[in-house]
Amino acid sequence: MTVDASGLESARPLLERSGTAERVAAILRQYITDGAFAPGERLSEPVISSALGVSRNTLRESFQLLAHERLAVHELNRGVFVRELTTEDIEDLYVVRRATECGALRRAAELSAVDLSQVEAALRDGRVAAAAEDWPSVGTASIHFHQALADLAGSERLSATMRQVLAETRLFFVLNENTRAFYEPFLECHEQILRDLRRGRFDAAEAALDRYLRDAEARLLELSTPAAGSGAPGTPR
Q1: Domain HTH gntR-type: where (predicted)?
Q2: How much of the chain, in percent, has pLDDT values that exceed 70?
């Protein structure tokens, strides 16, 4: 299965004057994060290079960057594919997520002021999507919520680490149960975390976040178990 790159033309302005490999990789990474490119889909060189208006060489460099970030894999004589992950990947990703996100809140607590507007916007987007029963969009809003939490630390390196980790996390979403029962508990946890942050209760927000991440990991591992034996990755959040 080859990805649908028909929407990439609109991303051309993001390349500014020259389509560098880093900018191309950033665009493709965002498409993976937002779920537009799913695990197992082939990243077609001619289709994507034409859509973005970049050379094959530039695109190949961007593929190498994505491979280094464990978001893509090159298969001999077949091409480049969005990576499929394993249950071991879930466990490792959540080790990194707890360290990164909880650490970001500890750092934010040391700052004189924090801007919660992006956290609030992500939660609002999630609630709007849930009301419309658009569960994939709830998943995208959840990704944006957790990126916004990491951004509270005011560290570009920490934020960049989180972008990569969340892009990897999104690779599980394709097998997710897109149901109210799966997503609503996470939205409720998001609201609790935001309430604590608004009150300046960073310790309570961190504790709630840690519980959230441990619960999410457990649910993902449970969902992924049937697929693990067949070599297919498990799913979601």
Answers
A1: 18-85
A2: 89
Single-letter amino acid code for the residue at 61: E
Nearest residue to 174 (alpha-carbon basis) of 111, 236, 83: 236
The amino acid at 102: C
The region of weakest confidence among 40-49, 50-59, 121-130, 228-237 is 228-237
d(CA 126, CA 213): 17
- pLDDT in the model for residue 19: 54
Across residues 43-62, what is the average pLDDT? Answer: 92
Contact residues for 30 (Cβ-Cβ < 8 A; gap 6+): none
Q: How far apart are CA 54 and CA 22, in angstroms?
A: 12
Question: In this structure, what are the phi and psi dihedrals at residue 193, rounded to the nearest 5 degrees?
Answer: -60, -45
User: In whole angstroms, what is the distance from residue 13 CA to residue 54 CA?
Assistant: 12
Identify whether the C-beta of residue 175 lies closer than 8 Å to the C-beta of residue 236.
yes
C-alpha neighbours within 13 Å on the C-beta side of residue 85: 29
**Sole residue written with tokens 């990805």:** 3
Residue (of 115, 91, 126, 97) closest to 210 by Cα position: 97
